[in-house]
Amino acid sequence: GIGGVGSWAAEALVRSGIGRISLIDMDHISVSNINRQVHALHSTLGASKIEVMAERLRDIRPDMDVQLIDDFLTLDNLEQRLDSSSR
Q1: Angle between the 49-60 and 6-15 helix axes, to the nearest 10 degrees?
Q2: Cα-flanking dihedrals φ and ψ of residue 48, to 5°?
Q3: Quick one: pLDDT at residue 86?
Q4: Strands (E), the chain
Q5: Which of 18, 35, 57, 75 is in the most buried spot, having the most CB atoms within 10 Å?
């Protein structure tokens, strides 16, 4: 997910030069996220975390290949999600 740790990790990876990233999260930005998530701002409240983060990452690196997976990662879907993100 791209919450308190994942949002910062995703941005650091993009800034370090990776060319492709998969963002997996099914949540929306809320007020309680603002203190710890890089994409959580008053202007993004209620928006999809993956969509806001993808826009931010593409603003950093326009040629970035960003795959959005609107789901939560669980033990039941882990293999399927990792397989689909490798394409």
Answers
A1: 20
A2: -65, 130
A3: 65
A4: 20-24, 65-69
A5: 57
The single residue listed with the structure tokens 């939560």 is 72
**How far apart, in Å, are the Cα atoms of 54 and each of 10, 11, 76?**
10, 10, 25
Q: What is the pLDDT of residues 7-60, one digit of tens each?
A: 999 999 999 999 999 999 999 999 999 999 999 999 999 999 999 999 999 999
Provide the residue ranges of all domains of the chain, joining segments of one domain with +.
Answer: 6-77
Query: 6-77 domain in CATH 3.40.50.620?
Result: no
Radius of gyration (C-alpha) of the chain in whole angstroms: 13
Question: Looking at the predicted structure, is the pLDDT value of residue 77 above 80?
Answer: yes
